[in-house]
Amino acid sequence: MGAPAARETRVVRIVKWLIGLVVIAALGWSGWWYLGATGQEAGIRAWLEKQRDRGWQAEARDIDVSGYPTDFRMVATDIELADPQTGWAWRSPELKADSQASVPTRINVTWPAKHSIAVPEDQVTITSKKMETLLDLRPGPAMELREAASQIEALVLTARSGWKADAKSANLQLLERAADTAPENSYNLKAVAVDVTLPKELVAQIDPTGWLQPKIGTLTFLAHGAFDDPLDRKTVEDGRLALRQATIREAGFEWGDMRLVLKGSFEVDDFGYPVGSIEIEANEWRQMVRLARRSGVIDRNLEANIVQGIELFTALLGGGDDLSAPFGLSDGKIKLGPFAIADAPRLAPPR
């Protein structure tokens, strides 16, 4: 009887020891989850308070974090963010952010089916069938961005002033490039929108003849660029983003009979202007320039300079409304051959 009793005692001790380990682990994980959940809520409230200290309106009626024991599921309701200096504001009935407790810096954000953005003298209501964003942040207080990717379906923008625009789908991605294959602070950017319908008022303004179709088949932008600083919380809050070099793999659109494709690369000089070249392929380039002027993107004088420069260049190739040519970027100008046809945009503050 002694040996079986001794074995039973050892088994009981092992079982108690294992139960104790499970309880300790459960308590430890529960403590970790609680600290993570309360820290997430406190962090959001502290950020809102910081924006109020800057003079913003920054409110959320309620912030709740649930999902124990495996997830952090944050729901913020009745959100209002407004910058009185610029007149911009965002209002939303709610915002959801989900992450696994084991990887709290990889966050899936679900936007509401309806929210709004106010701009000076107008307000735009945003509705969609689906609007989700993945945020992958490097752990740490700086919250450096590793990836941001959004998927949008059945997007509709409706302005209080009366105009309306929509898109069947849109996909956006900003992805950090590997440090051993790219310059410091480099990111890939991908943006693709399908079946984009412009406001009928804008289409009528830029093309009163009715030749222009209101729907753009595709809008594409594939590029990568390097910045002075990483994309992190400080960069976003300060709004200071200085581009230093970029490569455009493909950018353009298909819009009725018009087709535009841009490819090229450039660096940004000490004055903030691009230096490099962009290869442009365009069908119906005259119509594009004309529409740019009517929409207010360029003025009449600049339209004349662009048309004259392109005509001089294409005359050597037989003329026509199709264009395939390299545009140079230097000295703060956009050049076609030896002709400066427009001012280049300033992409960064002077060093």
SSE layout and pairings?
Elements: H1 2-53, E1 57-66, E2 71-83, E3 88-100, E4 103-110, E5 114-119, E6 122-127, E7 130-137, E8 145-159, E9 164-176, E10 186-197, H2 200-206, E11 215-227, H3 233-238, E12 243-255, E13 258-268, E14 274-283, H4 285-294, H5 300-315, E15 322-330, E16 333-336, E17 339-343
Antiparallel strand pairs: 1-2, 2-3, 3-4, 3-5, 4-7, 5-6, 6-8, 7-8, 8-9, 9-10, 10-11, 11-12, 12-13, 13-14, 14-15, 15-16, 16-17
Can you tell me about this structure?
The chain is an alpha+beta fold and 351 residues long. Helices cover 26% and strands 48% of the residues. It is built from 5 helices and 17 strands. The chain has helices at residues 2-53, 200-206, 233-238, 285-294, 300-315; strands at 57-66, 71-83, 88-100, 103-110, 114-119, 122-127, 130-137, 145-159, 164-176, 186-197, 215-227, 243-255, 258-268, 274-283, 322-330, 333-336, 339-343. A hairpin with a 2-residue loop joins strand 3 and strand 4 (103-110). Helix 4 packs antiparallel against helix 5 (300-315). The longest helix is centred in the first third of the chain and has 52 residues, at 2-53. It is globular. Residues 25-29 have low confidence and may be disordered.
Task: List the keywords.
single chain; 351 residues; alpha+beta; 6-stranded antiparallel beta barrel; 5 helices
Helix content: 25-40%
User: Would you identify the regions where 5 or more consecutive residues have pLDDT less than 50?
Assistant: 25-29
According to DSSP, the number of beta strands is 17
**Classification by helices and strands:** alpha+beta
Radius of gyration: 27 Å
Mean pLDDT score:
86
> How much strand?
over 45%
